[in-house]
Each structure stands twice: as C-alpha cells, then as structure tokens.
C-alpha cells in the first residue's frame, strides 16, 4: 500500500518514478578480475536492438565461416562471443549518438572489485552488461532486470556469455 501511495505522490509531483540498481560483477570460480570493467545499463529500446544485432552477427559469422565451424565446432563459442562483443560496441555507439549528455548515466567504469550503481532508473525492463578482461581474455556478463517499484535492486552479475 505504501508503494502505491509513493508512486501516486511521485506522479502528482511530476517526477517519473525511478529506482536504484546496484550490484556486483562476480568472477568465475578460481579466477580474479584484476582490471577495471565497464558496466552498461541498456534501456528497454536498446535491449531489443542489442538482441537483434547479436542475432544478425551470429547469422553473418555462420554464413562466412560455415566450413570452418562445421569442422571445428568449438570455434562457434568464439564467434558467438565476438558477435556479442561487436553488437555491444554498436549499441553503445548508437546510444551515445541518441542520448548525447545522458549517455554517461548508462555507462560506468568500475574498479576490479566489481561494484556498480545506477541511480534514477525509470521503470521498465533493462539488460545489464559488464565487459572486461580476466587475464588476457575478453569476458562479458549479462543479466536481464525489471524495475517495477522504487525499491532499490541488488544484482549479482554471474551469468557470462560463453
């Protein structure tokens, strides 16, 4: 009931309801994050764009490298990882163009401790991505999160893109 009253009060005051998303990036077992990471909050309209771009790139890489992938199936993981990475760079560039000054609200560089926070997040479904290196290997984490109330959310990014 208090949540409904808080939301009603925010709507009447002209402010859009928002929340805080904070969390941490979790390294795989027996590995350690030693370098800074970039954490990206993809707003709802960019979640769909990211998914589409990943699929396009996977299809393109499959067409281009089909003979090699048929003979060495383990290469598919590398091509999939590259598709996710390239799609993320594309979407970040698009967000920077579209959002100009607000872009920095969706991208944070964090210390190897892995802790991050996004404030004033409007309600909706978001994707959180983290990009960095473990050793000399590019690594990306991802999580889908839905903001439905002003209650702060805590997210542990554990799920990595293979």
What does this structure look like?
The model has no long low-confidence stretch (mean pLDDT 87). The strands form two sheets. Strands 3-2-5-6 form a four-stranded antiparallel β-sheet. Strands 4-1-7 form a three-stranded mixed β-sheet, with no helix packed on it. The longest helix is centred in the middle third of the chain and has 28 residues, at 44-71. A hairpin with a 2-residue loop joins strand 5 and strand 6 (137-147). The chain has 162 residues and is an alpha+beta fold. The protein has one domain (24-147). The protein has helices at 2-13, 44-71, 75-99, and strands at residues 18-25, 37-42, 107-110, 115-122, 124-134, 137-147, 153-157. It contains three helices and seven strands, in the order αββααβββββ. Helix 2 (44-71) runs antiparallel to helix 3 (75-99).
**Low-confidence parts:** none
The chain-level mean pLDDT equals 87
Overall tally of structural domains: 1
Distance between the termini: 42 Å
**What's the total helix number?**
3
The general outline is: globular
Strand order of the largest sheet: 3-2-5-6
Give the class from helix and strand content and strand pairing.
alpha+beta
Helix content range: 40-55%
Biggest sheet layout: 4 strands, antiparallel
> Secondary-structure element sequence?
HEEHHEEEEE
Would you count the extended β strands for me? Answer: 7
| Approximate strand percentage | 25-35%
Rg, rounded, reads 18 Å
